[in-house]
Amino acid sequence: MKLGIWLPIVHRTPPYVAERWELEGGPEDIAHITAAADACGIDYLFAPEHIALPASKRETRGEVYWDPLSTLGFVAAHTTRTRLVTLLFVASYHHPLEVAKRMATLDRLSNGRAIIGVGVGSLAEEFELLGADFRQRGRRTDDFLRALQAARGDRMPRYQGPFYKFSEMIVDPTLRNDIPLWVGGLSPVSLKRAIALGDAWAPTRMPVDQLTSVLADAETQTLLARRDRPLDVVYVWSGAALDPLNDPQGVAVLMRHLAKSGVTVFAPEMVHTTREIYVRQIEAVSKLAAAL
User: Fold this and answer.
1) Partners of 5 in beta bridges
2) Annotation: CATH topology of 2-291
3) Model pLDDT, residue 7
4) Within a 10 A sphere around the Cβ of 185, how many other Cβ atoms?
5) How far apart are CA 64 and CA 9, in angstroms?
6) Backbone phi, then psi, for 89, in 5-degree steps?
7) Across residues 8-27, what is the average pLDDT?
8) Which residues fall within 8 angstroms of residue 53, CB to CB, at 6 or more apart?
9) Neighbours of 196 (CB within 10 A)
10) What pLDDT digit, counting tens, does each position of 95-145 carry?
11) Which run of H or of E encompasses 292?
């Protein structure tokens, strides 16, 4: 099983509660943690996106979200092997060629380590603020992903869909033709979207029993069998913070269960009262994953 971690400090999403070190942390802490994650074998580092959040929903949606591309560009300079993932861009907030250009630049700067994660979004107030169509977000995301597929490996891509069309436009740096597209979401529709248009499905904080049921569904299995390559399943832990240092057996049992259910990438949230303990937890969970 591969491992990913949310970058600490750069976002805080309820019900997650940040420790004091994280609330006060800055670039030096991010650099230290990402270098440690890179050294001990963490496969992916994730950064999410929100542009502005309504103050009335701070208790449920949070307040702090650093820009994912600026953050991952900084992280690229402090790592050598770990993959860098936008988990997730909200498709309706961007033009696909904007994302293609920005992600191709990150990919070039990181020597081919970028992954594009895309979701439909769910915060109506943010859509309204940005002039995006909340009701059409699913169809627009489908079109966005197809447009990104058209832009992979083509310096002058051509595409025509219901929402996006382009031709005779040069995009350089150009997306490499095999840059992965991850699709986020909790609904069955998001899974079907990932199977049809992506390289991975990322259900963030879905209960384990629900995840197991969705992946075991007969229709899902049929759709997966029709693909010409396996679909990665990226599972962000939804329960209480895990403690690989003090409960390695319990965490190993959970990871084996997730792997059996079809999860290929696990992103745990872990107990960490200090930066040093956070690094030790990363090292501990890496050893557990290597032993599976």
Assistant:
1) 45
2) TIM Barrel (3.20.20)
3) 95
4) 24
5) 9
6) -70, 140
7) 90
8) 61, 62, 63, 65, 123, 125, 126
9) 14
10) 999 999 999 999 999 999 999 999 999 999 999 999 999 999 999 999 999
11) none
Q: Kind and range of the H or E element at 118? A: strand 114-119
Amino acid occupying residue 103:
M
pLDDT at 152 exceeding the cut of 90: yes
Q: Are 269 and 235 in contact (CB under 8 A)?
A: no
DSSP 3-state percent helix, strand, coil across the chain (nearest 5) = 45, 15, 40
Distance between CA 282 and CA 114 in Å, rounded?
21
What pLDDT, on the 0 to 100 scale, is given for residue 17?
77
- Distance between first and last Cα of the chain: 7
Could you tell me how many residues make up the chain? 292
265-267 and 232-236 beta bridge pairing = parallel
User: How do the domains of the chain map onto residue ranges?
Assistant: 2-291
* Torsion 292-1-267-39 (CA) sign: positive
